[in-house]
Amino acid sequence: MPETGDFKSEFLRNFVKRGHYYDCTDRDGLDGLLRKERVTAYIGFDCTAPSLHVGHAMQIMTLRRLQQAGHRPIVVMGGGTTKVGDPSFRNEARPLLSEEEIAANKQAILKSFRNFLTFGDGPGDAIMVDNAEWLDKLEYIPFLREIGRHFAIGRMLSMESVRAKLDYDLPFSFLEFNYSIMQAYDFLELYRRYGCRLQSSGSDQWGNIVSGIDLARRVENVQLFGLTTPLITTSSGAKMGKTAAGAVWLNPEMRSPYDYWQFWRNTEDADVGRFLRIFTDVADDEIARLEKLQGADLNEAKKILATEATAICHGRKAAEDAAETARRTFEEGVTAAGLPVVEMDWSAGDISGERGFRERSAAAILKGSGLATSLSDARRKIAEGAVRINDASISDPEKLYRASDAQPETGALKVQYGKKKIVLVKPV
Known about the structure:
Layout: H1 10-17, E1 23-24, H2 27-36, E2 40-46, H3 57-68, E3 72-78, H4 99-109, E4 127-130, H5 132-135, H6 140-146, H7 153-158, H8 160-167, H9 174-177, H10 179-194, E5 198-202, H11 206-220, E6 225-229, E7 242-243, E8 246-247, H12 257-265, H13 272-279, H14 284-290, H15 298-314, H16 316-332, E9 341-344, E10 359-361, H17 362-369, H18 375-383, E11 387-389, E12 392-393, E13 400-402, E14 413-417, E15 421-427
Parallel strand pairs: 2-3, 2-5, 3-4, 5-6, 9-15
Antiparallel strand pairs: 1-6, 7-8, 10-13, 11-12, 11-14, 14-15
């Protein structure tokens, strides 16, 4: 990892200092370009789901850092490349999505960028394009003659993502084999259309970035550059954003701002300073102060991390509302509006009780809340004495609840696991 003094440009010095930097092509050349002019740079995002997740936040923050330094970011939506699928480091082929599914995912993903970047027509404003604009129009034979002839099969087979597939005899189709060529062509086309000189991505995309640089040199005789970020894991070794409940989505429809706030609030102690640098705009001297806190005082740093990261993703008001909801819930012990709400079907299943009321067990409610992954997991957590329903500690996983047990003010049962995880379960 280079020191900040290894670079002279404001952007790269800050990029290293804030923990974003992993590697780049032609350090001196890129550093000089960033000092000399406003650089147009891009990152691509495929439309494989109706939201990006927190694992993408490093890349979106890279675009934010570029814009903060006066450069112009391009968000490339992979309407074209999603039809092929990136094979990188997957044990199975990506499922092929229909054009309708890709279009719907693309429209939903647009929301992920609204608060991270400033879009517009100004010289430093971000722009968003879809690579389907050019990939869908390519003709096969002309593309092979103009572009395909510049790709050596031996080099493509040596790429880490491809080699991993072949070494472990994993599914790998000719369709996926084309992904690297398409991504390389994206870089060339973005240079032609927008003067884009820099592509950034996670370190796992190094081979694809270099392929695009090599293609532009061969076809346009121009020097392009690549910049990569580290793949983020927590101090305990877990992959960033992976939880028992699944991915930590950026869109509020898929993960509420409160739940997003709680994700950051639960950061491991050893990660607080690092995550403040990467995922927030908190000043360096303030981070230096916060990461020195110990014990219970460190919780204040975690709350600042949660609020600032949530403000960037969901807006300042949503972040402050989430922080206040958490304060009221944990400090005052009240059921607060803003807690995540999960609807649970109360109409099906066995009928219990003299009057035929339908009931649900504590274990079933905990599983339905998403705070347990299965009934056996729910029973284990209840046995630990870590579960409360409607603020009452639960020891019997078979304890039954009726829909009428919902709290009047919310119409839901308040389900809590541990000190920090609370969900409102609404009978329907």
